[in-house]
Specification:
The protein has 342 residues and is an all-beta fold. It has one domain: Methylamine Dehydrogenase, Chain H (7 Propeller), CATH 2.130.10. It contains no helices and 29 strands. This is YncE family protein.
Length: 342
């Protein structure tokens, strides 16, 4: 990650999963500048919203890609496991440019650094769909283990890391050969994770671990387990299938600091790297999930899913600069530099 040029405002796009829309926040003054509604569809006569699961901007910031799938509206909303699509829309006008139907339900996408490909994990299958942006077509399905969920692309684009929910693996895909070259079995559903620039270490959240695993990718094994501070009295880790205790991780670009969302306990744990010393805890709203560092690395953005807000913290002093109202169940985020008025 590099700091952006001085010109331009950073706009944070927030996917409101239950609301079927996006909230756009200007990180200059922390105001909401737009709400982008997704279209409604009919499935077997039932009205549904095209729920956005995740977002990824094109390198020039002019296009935003969104993985989406149909979800019921109102009180009947829920996880239907219906097949979804990859959508592309213009960030300046929010005009929908194209959609590509997918073979199953997409989760957290990544794109190649040159913007030519989008990698879409299909959660109810065992592969990642590879989408050629220029062709607007799926060109490959790369097996990587059952239930691919989260993805991270290496800085040079040569490796795609995929966490699987049902396969309990952290898998590594060679993006030139389009084949899985490594699977590290972790014994639990893999949730958000980050990988160091040298591709030797991954910090991995697991569904029912109040903490994270340190994975030695060279050895293909867990080297340590880090436990977050003890849960408050009366708060226990549920053991139902599909549950996740904590769901959000991010590193600063110099790899000096790791942020881990304690979704079950309403805070962000801050660790110094590589020694993994707990430096502080930042109080959030209810159920913080996912963590986004601003492009200039001045702010830490955290969606409070149960409150319908986004907390924006100063990275320098870890104070809350703003808490901005979003939509219904804000979740994944992405940002761009806007050089023209929105």
């Amino acid at each position: 990650m590099t700091s952006p040029p001085a010109q331009g405002r950073e706009l944070l796009y927030v996917a409101n999963m239950h609301g079927g829309d996006l909230t756009v926040i200007d990180l200059t003054d922390f105001t909401v500048v737009d709400t982008v509604a997704m279209e409604r569809v009919q499935v077997d006569g039932q009205p549904m919203a095209m729920q956005v699961d995740s977002l990824w901007p094109a390198p020039d910031g002019a296009t935003m890609y969104a993985s989406r799938y149909p979800a019921p509206l109102g009180k009947e909303r829920g996880d239907t496991r219906l097949p979804g699509d990859l959508a592309a829309f213009r960030t300046g006008t929010h005009e929908l440019l194209w959609t590509l139907p997918l073979s199953g339900q997409p989760n957290h996408i990544s794109a190649s650094p040159d913007g030519g490909r989008v990698y879409v994990p299909i959660r109810d299958r065992s592969y990642v769909e590879v989408v050629d942006v220029g062709k607007q077509a799926s060109i490959a399905r790369v097996p990587c283990g059952w239930g691919p969920h989260g993805t991270e692309i290496s800085s040079d684009g040569s490796r795609l890391y995929v966490g699987t929910i049902w396969g309990h693996t952290l898998s590594v895909i060679d993006t030139e050969r389009l084949e899985c070259v490594q699977r590290v079995h972790l014994g639990e559903s893999v949730r958000p994770f980050v990988v160091t620039r040298d591709r030797r270490t991954a910090y991995v959240q697991l569904s029912r671990l109040h903490g994270f695993s340190v994975v030695d990718l060279a050895r293909g094994a867990t080297s340590a387990t880090v436990h977050l501070p003890r849960l408050p009295a009366g708060v226990e880790v549920p053991h139902k299938v599909g549950y996740t205790v904590n769901h959000g991780m991010r590193m600063l670009s110099d790899e000096s600091t790791l942020y881990a969302a304690a979704s079950i306990a309403d805070y962000i744990a801050v660790y110094s790297l590589p020694e993994l010393r707990l430096r502080s805890q930042i109080a959030t709203g209810r159920e913080p999930a996912f963590v986004k560092v601003s492009l200039d690395e001045r702010f830490l953005c955290v969606p409070n899913r149960k409150d319908g807000t986004v907390s924006i913290f100063s990275i320098e002093d870890e104070t809350e600069a703003a808490r901005v109202s979003a939509g219904d169940y804000p979740n994944r985020m992405a940002s761009i530099l806007a050089r023209e008025p929105v």
